[in-house]
Structures are given as C-alpha cells and as structure tokens.
C-alpha cells in the first residue's frame, strides 16, 4: 500500500475503506473482509452509528494495532464544546476498543468550531490521537481555522470525484500543508458515473473497471480515497489500482468531466448550515 506523509510526519495509507451508510449489523463483516483484502485505513464516524462494529472487526482481525490507521469523526457539539468534545472522543475510543486514534476529524464546519478544535489539539498533545483534521471545510473556513490556532489540520476530507474535482481547494491545501481526502469518490453513482463513456473507455484501455479508473485518478492526484463496498469481490477490485498509470491525455479527459458543483450539498448555503448545525446525536 502506498502512503502519504501528513504535515506532522505521520504516514497514512492513500487508499482505505469507508463505512458510511453500512448498517451497523453488517459493518463487522464488511470491515473484516476489507482487512482481509489488504486495507489498513478504516474510516468511520460517530454519526455513522457503527463504531462498535468496526472495533469488533479490528479486535478479531489479529492484525497488530500499529499496522492499522483508524479514523473517526467528531460531530457538532453544544457549549461547552471543548469539554463535550473530549467526552465524545472517549466514547468513540471506547466503542472502537482502542487506546488511541490515528486520525480524528471535525465532521462539520459548524457549532463552536474553535472550542472543538482546542479540545482536539489537547487530545493530540496528550498522545490520544496521532493526527487531527477536519471534514467538509471550504478554503475560507480552513484557512481561518489554521490561521488562528496552534495546530494546522493534517487532513481535510471533502466531497471529491470526477464531477467535482476540487482542484482549486487542493491547491490551497497544498499551500498550507493539509492533505486532501475524498469522500464520495464514486459520486454514489450519480451522473451515471459507472457507465460514463470517458471513464469506461479509459478502463477498457487498461483492462480495468470504471471504479478502478476513478480510484487510480484519485491516488495519482495525491488524494486519499476511502471507497465503500459490502461485497468482498468489489473490495478486492478497488484496492487493485497500483499496477497501472493514467496517461496525461487520460488525466486531461477526466479533468474535462468536472462540473465545479457538488452533487450532494454545499456547506456554504443557509439551508445546509441550518440543517446540519441543528442536528445532534442521541446521547
């Protein structure tokens, strides 16, 4: 597995396994099969409701802890956010059955962002988490956060796929030493991604599927990817993307697919800010 080096020297696999929208009662099996297929980066979140199942799969895998890279995410916290964030972190760690996290992300750019970040900085300083970062931060919010705090986020996990490529966002992250990570790399199949003629044509030339082409494009663009699947054969297919390389012409053809707009939601809109900003997790 190829790695990227984060801004604090921590190495992170460039390709991992995500568990968003996998039901809790199916997550343990899925993660077990992903680990067997060779994945070592596992990405979950408190909001996904499946941290315990992820933890069971990790515990039963027999894989040494130091070989794994485990990410979970902090949901929006009410005041006092700094105190609440620390408590919620410990809850996630307990559910995962771990002594520390490799990466802890602030899931949304809402609520008391600064209080939440101060708690995450403290956890990082105490060695409870090897790296901290954010998710769904547009460049203005990201630069504001890193300009006014001690620790620069190591990662920003954002919607990134062939139809919303985020190249300008990535340029800002590169400037400030923040690693871009993709969620929704397959765009959840929107815009007929899996039958797109450009992607299909590129795949045919390499003897690869559209999914493999997309993942190759992401990792070749230095973007960490976390594809999800509940099928062992697809898991094996998705991790098999390091034996071919896209040409400059193929990269240009994929670049032309960019619409510059989200296929899901824009965190800068009042509607999304209102909807997500008011959501709280049970307990």
Question: What report would you give on this structure?
Answer:
The structure is a single chain. The chain has one domain: NADP-dependent oxidoreductase domain (TIM Barrel). Helix 1 packs parallel to helix 2, helix 1 packs across helix 9 and helix 3 crosses helix 4. The chain is of the alpha/beta class and 283 residues long. The protein is globular. Helices cover 42% and strands 15% of the residues. The strands form two sheets. The chain has an eight-stranded parallel β-sheet with strand order 3-4-5-6-7-8-9-10. The chain has a two-stranded antiparallel ribbon with strand order 1-2. It has eleven helices and ten strands.
In short:
This protein is of the alpha/beta class. The chain has a single domain (3-276), classed as NADP-dependent oxidoreductase domain (TIM Barrel, Alpha-Beta Barrel), CATH 3.20.20.100.
Mean pLDDT: 96
> Regions with pLDDT < 50 over 5+ consecutive residues?
none
Number of strands: 10
CATH topology type: TIM Barrel
Separation of termini? 37 Å
Question: By CATH's scheme, which homologous superfamily applies?
Answer: NADP-dependent oxidoreductase domain
Please report the number of helical segments. Answer: 11
What is the CATH class name? Alpha Beta
Shape: globular
Strand coverage percent: 5-15%
For the largest beta-sheet, the strand count, sense and barrel status come to:
8 strands, parallel
Strand order of the largest sheet: 3-4-5-6-7-8-9-10
The domain tally reads 1
Q: Please tell me how large the radius of gyration is.
A: 18 Å
Briefly note the structural class of the backbone.
alpha/beta
Helix content: 40-55%
What is the correct CATH architecture?
A: Alpha-Beta Barrel
> What sequence of helices (H) and strands (E) makes up the elements?
EEEHEHEHEHEHEHEHHEHHH
